[in-house]
Amino acid sequence: MKKERKKSRALTAWAVIVAVVCMVPMLASCQKPLPTPEGKPLDRVQLMTATGELATVEYTVSKIIKAKDCTWWKIGEKRVLFKCNAYLQAGVDMAGYDDSKTRIDSSAMAITVTLPKVKILSCRMPFEEIRLVESEATGFRHQFSAEERQLLLQQGEQSILADVDSGKYAILADAERNTRIFFERMLTRLGYKSVTIKFEK
Question: What is the mean pLDDT of the segment spanning 117-145?
Fold first, then answer.
């Protein structure tokens, strides 16, 4: 009996989160609170799994990537400088959502949802937005090869992600705030009087 009750609570938790993610277009224009969703929980679980990543913020970062090679035993030097844009998206990967960490008090219409930790979901550096500002070689040196330039761009992308981890950009904090606001509003529209959103550590 306890196992059946636990399973029922888990499926109910999944149903609530699925409804939040999948009913956004309809809820956006609805002013009246909606009742707690009903339906086939298993169907909603499958739909939730297919939802995948939920991006709640995007940053555009302009990056200068430069390199200089003046090895002492070689005559001359070579240098290169790029300017590019990187597009970062952050949010939560709902595939990592654990329904056992969601608590629902139907009598008080209260819900506490624990979501996966926010993270960078994508980092794009479009090739068409990469501009070669300077490329020069002196003495007997050759300019940076295509392979070397590609490696430098990859290092530039890694540098951007390192800046995110160090807190230079507030994208993760913004993603957490926006995700919390998103779920609070949607769950309130579903009729819940008390909504608490937490994130895994």
Answer: 89
Is the pLDDT reported for residue 171 higher than 90? yes
d(C-alpha 17, C-alpha 51), whole Å:
11
162, two tokens? 């390192």
Q: Which of 10, 14, 32, 17 is nearest to 182 (CA)?
A: 17
Task: Output 51 or 171, whichever has higher pLDDT.
Answer: 171
**Which distant-in-sequence residues (6+ apart) come within 8 Å of 75 by Cβ?**
139, 140, 141
* Nearest partner of 195 among 33, 58, 22, judged by Cα: 33
State the burial class of residue 114 (Cβ atoms within 10 Å of its Cβ: 0-12, 13-18, 19+). Answer: middle
Distance CA 169, CA 68 (A): 27
Averaged pLDDT for residues 137-151: 86
Q: For residues 102 and 111, is the Cβ–Cβ distance under 8 A? A: yes
What is residue 69's DSSP assignment? E
What pLDDT, on the 0 to 100 scale, is given for residue 25?
Answer: 38
Among all chains, which residue has been given the structure tokens 């530039």? 156
Nearest partner of 118 among 154, 92, 145, 99, judged by Cα:
92
pLDDT over threshold 80, residue 40: no
Q: Quote the Cα angle for 124-198-122, to 5°.
A: 5
